[in-house]
Each structure stands twice: as structure tokens, then as C-alpha cells.
Amino acid sequence: MVRLGFSQELLRLKLKERIQASGVVFDDLALTQNRIADAFRSMSLATEMAVVVVLRDFIPRVFVESCMDFVLGLDDTSRLGWFRSFTRTIYLAGNPNNLVGRFSFRQLAKDGSIAWSAPAPFASSFTLRRLLSSFHANIPDSALTGFETVVPAARLSGKTKILYVGVAGLTGVDYLIHLNHTLSEGILTGAISPGDRVLVRAVPSVNGCPQLANLRVHVDLFDGRRLRAYAGISDSLAQHTNSLCD
Amino acid sequence: MTQSPGKARSRILLAPVPITPTKPLTPSHLRGMLWVDVMQKATAQFADVDCLYSHLTANGSEQTVGFWEFLDREVGDADFSVHSEPEIGELYLRYHSQTSKPSYSALSPYLRAVENGSWVHPISTRLYQIWSAHAVALRVHDPGATCDRWRAIPVEALIQRLTECDLCLDLRSKGGALYLDLTAEGIPLRQVITTEGHSNYLISLLRELVPQIQSYDHLILIHDRELHADYLLLQRILMRLGASVDRVPISRVAIDGVVQSTRHGGWQGYTASDLTSNLMKVADLPSIRLGMRLYFIATLGKGKPGSFNTGQLERAVRRAKSLISTADNRDSKESVESFLRRCTGRNKYADPYKVTSGLLSKRRPAPFPREGFSEWYV
């Protein structure tokens, strides 16, 4: 029988798999008993590596392309440290032009509108965080329309991946968060590879796209006692014309 | 003051922090007004000095329009023509004791009226009348006097100018806010326009100051010490736009040992009306004018002043009376020009503290300003 959505049980399983992939100890029982807040609280990381992204504008395609450049440019140690830290990222409003003199960034978007700092202990970004403000915006129209890009490589792979983000109830920053985690971890785990064509699509909820893999699962913003799948990656277009998406 | 032949006088613009027309004038306000007045008159002896008192900022601030909206909603129609400063102060305290803030749409008509310059709430008209009377009595610049010379540039024109110099971060079209951006100098982002499009007082000040940059050699920003961070930001932005800018911070005056913003009260019995009416019982106007300057500038000094002390103020007024009566016998060999040059030093302006304490100095008596004879002090 074809699944028509993600059961809470399945989401718990996926979340557990992700936590275990980070090698982090957590309260499994709390998660099983749907005490989700307790489960998250129980997770502690020895050294958390965080990335700071500075944005002076909000163009999702520019964000995606600079994100891909950033992740592909990381060395193995950074990749592992950041993955283990659940690709923790802080989003700040700021103009990279005004910051490059004082701060060293790992990656700058081609148009200079986005800057990424290398994964580092959270405390090390204190000065930057104090100087800038949290990023706040609405989800841009281009995100809702959808767009496409190619993962940088010498040649095309011939494969297409579709990244879905479920946007119901999300702020602009929420959209960035779920998009970033899914895209970054997709590249880090090989679900998305250099040369792949990537279509980024917004749907109200990815629960309507039950064939997705690499699910991004977190607390449901509408009800803290539930889990919700916010994003995921699909292998092919063909699979999805048969499902409830697109 | 004579300059070398052919050398033009400096053109200086003083920009004191505007007082919102919502509350009584307290000792802190008086101190600020007298400080600016002494600075202006003394500096005008050797430079061309103008004073930009921004009504756009005073009337358009959230405090002011919020107060007006509160009055129309909670008090309704009333005749404010005989309200006293303390009575208005009590209403202001009631306004600030509210727990919820008015919505931006509720404030819109008031903000629009200030922008057009077409309407002022009668309570503020009344306050400006009261302040005008104080200004005349004390011979200081009248905060109620409007000036057509200052034309604010539109908000969007200001933003364009700032954007060209990477001095602002504008996320409004993306549903975010607008920030002043001096992060290149290590100063944190400062939000100045909200997501809904509401501008704060820094935008109003910049709208009036930026178009004046090319008309003056120096801008002097006079402000409360408490607004240090914002005024530092303003100074740096104006400098990046080509101005030469100095800041003069002035500390607030404590009452009974407490320094607080007018919205928290504590000024009852110490308003400008209270002080002047009490002093008028014991002294004449010339002594009060001079005495207030001696007290608020020299006695309270430059740094953190002590608590307001009626006894000390009265002593200063008596001293003033004595100085005036012995003016003719005063043995000062120094010319006004030389004295003021001493009080200016490396600054662009005459330091009111040096000028005032110079007048009191017995060791090296400064030339004495005679009322009606010279206007370099009172």
C-alpha cells in the first residue's frame, strides 16, 4: 500500500537516525514518549561547531548557490564537525562589504551579498553576532515559485534532485534554516552530488510528498508535542508526477 | 573677534537634541538649554553660528505622537489653554503608565500631520507657549519657535544617499527592517525603520542635518550623555558623508539623588515653572538669568552633576546679583575676544563651562557681560 504522508512513528525513526549519525547521546525514551522538548534538551555536544551566515539581501537562488560553494569548499574535519553539530547555522543581517576588513570569511557569494564563516565553536563568533542583528524577512516570491540550479562540477552528472521545503507557517528565516540543513546535509551525505541538477520547490507541507528521502525532521511549530517533516530530497521527477506533488 | 585679513569666519551649526513637547521642563532640560545658549552666543563672537532645533524630530518622535494619540483616546476634547506644566506632566505620567503601545495604524494620522507640518496637538501648542515664556525670561533660544530654513529631505532620498555609501542595510522590500550600518567601524547595526515602515528619531535628525552638511564648516551635536551610542553613530555617519562633526554630551541633573527620564516622574516641584516662580520671589530677572547660568553650568560642572539643590541655585542667583552690581568696578584687563579665545582653545566652539567659570573666577577675572551692552553671554 502506498503511504499517504509520514506517520509520527516514521518521523521519530528518521529523527533518531539523524541524531545517531551525529554520535550524540540523547534521551531515547523521551522521544518515544513524544516528550520531544525533553529529548532535544537532553542532547549535549562536547564542542558545538557553528557556522554564521551574513546576508544583506534575500534571494533564495543566490543563497543556494553560495551554500553549495561553501559546503563543497569545506575540508573533511570541518565537514565532520559541522555535520555532528547538526549543521548549526546562525543567520545575521549585515553587509559583507563592511565586514571583510575586520572578519575573515570562508566563502563570499559571487555578488558579495552573502558571507559564510568557517565552522567554529559558537563562542568564537561573539563579536560578529554582537555587531549584527538576527536576520528577519518574509519568504520571497521566488522561493514560492521555485527555481533551479546545478551543483558545481566539471561536468553535469545527468541526475536531477528535487529539494522540497514545506512552507506552511514558516517565516523567511525558518525557510532558510530548513533549506540550508537539507541542502548542506544532502551534499555532505552524498544525496546531492557535484554535477546534479537541483530543483528547489516550495509546497505547503512535504507531508504531501511521501516519497521523499533525507527528511529534515524537527518539532512541529504548530504543536510542540508533534514532529514535522519540513523538507526532503527526491531522486527524480518521474517519481513525483505519480505522487501528490507538482 | 578679528581674524587675519581676508580669512572668512567659520560657519558653525549647533544641533541640540530636541525636547519632545510632552512634559515639563526639568532641571536637566534647563541645563541643556542654557549650555547651548552660552555656546551659541559666545561662539557667535568669532564665527557665524546657527542653531538647528528639529521640530520634525521633537514632534514626530514616538513619545510625542503616542502621547497625542493617548490624549485623544483617553481624555478626548478639552480646552488645554490653561493647563500648567505640572498638570501636563501628570498626563504624561499617565500616558507612560499604560501597559500596551498603540498600533502603527493608530499613530499614522499623527505622523502624517507632523510630516506635513500642518497640525500640532493643542497640548503641545500649550507647552510651546509655556516654554516660549521661559525662553524669553531666561533669554535662551525658544524651542517653540519654528524656522523655515530647515528643510528635511524625504526619507527615500536620505536612504538612497546612505545606501550609496554602504551606510545602511535595507531589507524592507524583503519584509525586514532598515538599519544604519557602521559595522565597518565596529559599531553595531542600529534599526531605524521597522518592518511596518515606522522611522525613529535618528532618521528625522539625519533628514534635517544631511542637507546642511555643505552649508557649514562644522556641525556640533549636543546631546544627553544617555544618548551617547546613538549620537556617536550620527556623528560617524555625518563624517562619512563629508561633515566635520563634534559631539558635546551633557549629563542629566539628578533630583534627590535620582537621575531618571521625565517619564518616571520625580520632577514634581522642580519644573522650570516652579523654579522661576520661586526665584522671582527673591530676586530680579537679570540676576535670575545670570544666576541660572552660573548654577547649571559652573556649579553643576561638566561631569556627572550632583543632585539639584535649591539652596545652591539661590546662592548662585545672589552671586549673580552681586556680580552685576559690581560690574563697573570689575578689574579685568582682558578683552572679550582674548577671553573667548582662551575658552575655545582647540575646539571649534567656546566652551560654556570655561566661559561661565571664567566669569566667577576671582584669580583672573574675565570681562563682564553687561546686559543689553553685549550679547555674548546672556
Structure notes:
The complex is a heterodimer of chains A (246) and B (378). In chain A, the strands form two sheets. In chain A, strands 1, 2, 3, 4, 5 and 6 form a six-stranded mixed beta sheet that branches. Chain A has a five-stranded mixed beta sheet with strand order 7-9-8-11-10, sandwiched between helices. Residues 239-246 of chain A have low confidence and may be disordered. Chain A is of the alpha+beta class and 246 residues long. Chain A contains nine helices and eleven strands. With 378 residues, chain B is an alpha/beta fold. Helices cover 44% and strands 9% of the residues of chain B. Chain B contains 14 helices and seven strands. Chain B has a four-stranded parallel beta sheet, sandwiched between helices. The A-B interface holds A 56-58, 93-95, 97-99, 101-102, 130-133, 135-138, 140, 172 and B 166, 169, 171, 174-177, 179, 181-184, 186-189, 191, 195.
Low-confidence stretches of chain A: 239-246
How many individual β-strands of chain A? 11
Proportion of beta-strand residues of chain B: 5-15%
Describe the strand arrangement of the main beta sheet of chain B, using strand numbers: 2-1-6-7
Strand content of chain A: 15-25%
Largest sheet of chain A: 6 strands, mixed
Described by the principal axes of the CA atoms, the overall outline of chain A is globular
Shape of chain B: globular
Helix count, DSSP H or I runs of 4 or more residues of chain B: 14
CA radius of gyration of chain B: 22 Å
How far apart the termini of chain B lie comes to 18 Å
Report the count of strand segments of chain B.
7
Provide the structure class of chain A: alpha+beta
Task: List the main descriptive attributes of the protein structure presented here.
heterodimer, A: 246 residues, alpha+beta, 6-stranded mixed β-sheet, 5-stranded mixed β-sheet, 24% strand, disordered C terminus, B: 378 residues, alpha/beta, 4-stranded parallel β-sheet
